[in-house]
Automatic annotation (TrEMBL):
Cross-referenced PANTHER family: OXIDOREDUCTASES, TRANS-1,2-DIHYDROBENZENE-1,2-DIOL DEHYDROGENASE
Keywords for the protein's UniProt record, in alphabetical order: Oxidoreductase
Domain Gfo/Idh/MocA-like oxidoreductase N-terminal: 6-123
Keyword Ribosomal protein: no
Any Pfam family the entry gives: GFO_IDH_MocA
Organism in which the protein naturally occurs: Halomonas campaniensis
Residues in GFO/IDH/MocA-like oxidoreductase domain copies: 132-247
Family label: Belongs to the Gfo/Idh/MocA family.
Protein name, UniProt field: Putative dehydrogenase
GO molecular function: nucleotide binding; oxidoreductase activity
Length: 340
């Protein structure tokens, strides 16, 4: 079997804890190199058995034995290095949020299209099979017409720590770090909203939001709510409320925290519940899907326009939070949401 040869730009924690093991576990992938600008690549390569370590990202991009790169850099560097990788002819899997606004999304997509390489945003949760199963249940009409979606992702973070998530210069904050997940699933289920209103807590000393809550409204009367926080217990869930029942995924975004076991809780209009456990390994499955696509052996994991849609929605939420206003999104501009 042909394997896509991967390199990683950075020794970030998400790379060490999740993506290095995922690439090494995927049958269609082979991890050949890692790079760092801080001199840590050699130690990480030795620890994980990675063949080559590069002192500098450009050296990795010039490595002919690297066909695809994973970009887990701070948020403000995603677009820059994704475009640089494309210019070197590398396929790009970029950690979320890949683009912070429509301009970045369009620039990244244009660079990859021009180079003839694949580009995907790293929402690993999309690749867990519980979401495909949830979609099947919704499409069956079991809970009736979908009227509302609620999503939440939170975890406690030491706000006094030296953490890139708390850096305004690096485009940190709870909206970008975890709020993008419930926004993504809301957009995939309901499409782009007509307007968004977001409030939150933004300590002046930090300059980034530590908790946010938002409302998304749709022209047909449907509503969606999302929340994100660095100051609440660990929760990662979404609920779809229909005219005749509801559907809840209590471990929607990080089922890997409980051995890969997701669960779908279906409640009918009489209050009776049914639970369906769904097992998956979302990080390796993400690598498999991307690798097969880049190799020309599988379909594109995302629908055209997903990156632009998500970046546009995220930017609208950020503007609403910062300016204290409702932000309208023009109808008919964006492509339809993808099926999972």
């Amino acid at each position: 079997m042909r394997q896509l040869k991967w390199g990683i730009l950075s020794t970030a924690g998400i790379a060490r804890k999740a993506m290095i093991p995922a690439i090494q576990a995927a049958s269609s992938a082979r991890l050949t190199a890692i790079a760092s600008e801080s001199g840590k690549a050699g130690d990480v390569a030795a620890e994980y058995g990675i063949p080559r370590a590069h002192d500098g990202f450009r050296h990795l991009l010039e490595d002919p034995d690297v066909e695809a790169v994973y970009v887990p850099l701070p948020n403000h560097l995603h677009a820059r290095w994704a475009c640089e990788a494309a210019r070197h002819g590398k396929h790009v899997l970029c950690e979320k949020p890949a683009a912070l606004d429509a301009e970045e999304a369009l620039t990244m997509q244009a660079a990859c299209d021009q180079a003839g390489v694949a580009l995907m945003e790293g929402y690993m949760y999309r690749h867990h099979p519980q979401h495909a199963r949830a979609r099947e249940i919704l499409d069956s009409g079991e809970i009736g017409e979908v009227r509302q979606v609620r999503g939440l992702f939170s975890f406690p973070l030491d706000l006094g720590a030296d953490n890139i998530r708390l850096s305004a210069a690096a485009a940190g904050g709870s909206l970008h770090d975890v709020g993008c997940y419930p926004l993504d699933i809301i957009r995939r289920l309901l499409g782009m909203p007509e307007a968004v209103t977001v409030i939150g807590r933004m300590p002046e000393a930090l300059g980034v939001d530590t908790s946010v809550n938002g409302m998304l409204s749709y022209a047909d009367g449907r509503l969606a709510e999302f929340g994100a926080s660095f100051q609440q217990t660990m929760l990662n869930r979404y609920e779809v409320i229909g005219s005749h029942g509801s559907l809840l995924l209590p471990a929607a975004f990080r089922p890997d925290k409980q051995g890969g076991v997701g669960e779908i809780v279906i409640r009918d209009e009489r209050g009776r519940t049914r639970r369906e456990p769904v097992f998956g390994d979302q990080y390796p499955d993400q690598v498999e899907a991307f690798s097969r696509w880049a190799l020309g052996e599988g379909p594109a994991p995302d629908a055209p326009g997903e990156l632009l849609d998500q970046a546009t929605l995220l930017a609208a939420c950020r503007r609403s939070l910062q300016e204290g206003c409702t932000v309208s999104l023009p109808p008919g501009t964006y492509r339809a949401p993808a099926g999972d």
